[in-house]
Amino acid sequence: LTPARAAEKAKIVTGAMAILNLGLWMAHTVAEVASLGQVEAISELKDMVLDPMGLSSISQQTVTIPVTELLLKPLQQHYAAEFTPEIPDIAELINIVVKDKMSLEDFKEWMKFRGFNETWSQLIWDAHFIAPDYGNLIKAFYRTDMSEERLIELMRLVDLDPDYNEEIWRVNIGEIPPVSELVNQRVKEVITQGKLDESLKFWGYPQEWSARIWDAHFMAPSLNDILTAFRRRIPVDIPEIDEGSGAITYRHVERLTISDVHQLMVLVDLDPRYQTIFDTRIYEDPSITQ
Known about the structure:
By secondary structure, the protein is mainly alpha-helical. It has five domains: 3-83, no CATH class; 90-127; 136-169, no CATH class; 179-216, no CATH class; 223-279, no CATH class. It has 15 helices and two strands.
């Protein structure tokens, strides 16, 4: 129903409910004159029939909604405009002071209209400031001579649950180098493979991914290296991966073919869309005899 149609239907229902209520009143009156037993039956009709069917509520709302919307709301708006009794809520009052549109003393005076004395108003103001988060605290801990005990105390002041101090907050104090730096340290043999595996766990990588990251970091041969092996016709081993198990094996060839060259191009991350361009580099070295 549209609002207009709903209003029309409401008028019909209101009229029907008015007639029904009038009929019930008349029946109650007649029954009261007739006998006490019938009075009780009529009085129970509302509780046993009308209320379970929601008719009493519908009857009430069809009367109160038009009255509320047509009379009470405009009446409220009229007196609100005449007397302007409203003041901003606490959050907006704080925002006004933050923007330097009102002094703290005026804030306390307006808070009295909301029932807060100056003590509570001052506490509300003091507590409204944005506290540093855990990341800010950790940065300050790294960059100053702040003790760990002071760090723990500050975490409590910014509402970090002390129940998690040992299992969460303290554990996150230490920083771990990024993955690229960890790999670089392993390359330079500053850390062992076991230390690399352990450190990568802090970044969420299990053992199997640690091994893959390490295997993938090595520098692949260039296109020139592949073509040199092709031209010199020397035996090579081509790495291949088993799609099922993921295991890496090596296929030995006595001499690279054009197909092998194309396969190796993909392995060293040369874009296959440009294969025809790469193919222009392929030629037989005339200095090598058959």
